[in-house]
Amino acid sequence: MAARTEESDTAREQTKAEQDVDQVRQRAARDQQRLDSGMVTSPKDLESLQSEIASLAKRQDDLETVVLDIMERHEAAQARARELAATLEELEARVTDASARRDAAVTEIESETERISAERAELAATIPADLLKLYEKLRTQQGGVGAARLYQRRCEGCRLELNITEVNEVRAAAPDEVVRCENCRRILVRTTDSGL
Ligand SMILES: [Zn+2]
Questions:
Q1: Domain identity same for 25 and 108
Q2: Are strands 154-155 and 179-180 parallel, antiparallel or unpaired?
Q3: Judgement on whether residues 103 and 50 belong to the same structural domain of the protein
Q4: I need a labelling partner for 66 at 20 to 30 A (CA). Which of 2, 44, 147, 169 fits?
Q5: Per-residue DSSP letters for 92-147?
Q6: Where in the sequence is the domain holding 145, given as residue range(s)?
Q7: Is residue 41 part of a domain?
Q8: pLDDT value for 183
């Protein structure tokens, strides 16, 4: 915006300076006509007319230098505004692109969440009510993880290894019995990698 303001300010300045040059040029032309008409005859008037024409020529020259200077500044401002407009356009395109990718990701995450929630609900329906209730209670107490895999005699919930007595208890438990970690109280899930 600052570059655009600079651009329009210098354009206005240029117009004004060009008008100043025009005024001086017209006045010099009028003086020259009077001189050429032969109607001014007194030597004193002729001298003053010639002197004015000379000083107007000098003034015109000075003003034209001013115009050139303003033109240079205007062109620089124009180039800068163009360059910034191109950068802006590029950045806006990147924002549009990033927004589209974000929206696509959100859609994908939402549909995945929906799918997983449905899967979970289906699975939860097959689990006995009292076990599910215990699991939900533990999950609330234990930062979202109510059950943990028992892997090589280690509870993957609290990362503690079971001692030999605990291992023996788990080993002796029936396959459908709910076993818990003595340390964190989470439900332990036995697999072939449990080290029993
Ligand atoms: Zn544990």
A1: yes
A2: unpaired
A3: yes
A4: 2
A5: HHHHHHHHHHHHHHHHHHHHHHHHHHHHHHHHHTTS-HHHHHHHHHHHHHTTT--E
A6: 129-190
A7: yes
A8: 95
Same domain, 133 and 111: no
Do 171 and 76 belong to one domain? no
pTM over 0.70? The answer is: no
Q: Please state the domain count of the chain.
A: 2
CA of 63 from ligand 1 middle (Å) equals 90
Question: How much distance in Å is there from the Cα of 182 to the middle of ligand 1?
Answer: 7
**Mean pLDDT value across residues 168-178:** 94
pLDDT in tens, 65-92: 999 999 999 999 999 999 999 999 999 9
Q: How far is the CA of 163 from the centre of ligand 1 (A)?
A: 12
Ligand 1 centroid to Cα of residue 149, in Å, is 9
Centre of ligand 1 from the C-alpha of residue 148, in Å: 7
Give the distance (Å) from ligand 1 centre to CA of residue 112. Answer: 30
Question: Is residue 16 assigned to a domain?
Answer: yes
Clarify whether residues 32 and 106 are in a common domain: yes
In this predicted structure, what is the pLDDT of residue 17? Answer: 97
In a domain, 156, yes or no: yes
d(CA 35, CA 54): 13
Share of the chain above pLDDT 70, in %: 100
Dist. CA 188 → ligand 1 center (Å): 8
CA distances from 61 to 22, 25, 56, 58, 66 (A): 12, 10, 8, 5, 9
The CA 181 to ligand 1 mean position distance, Å, reads 5
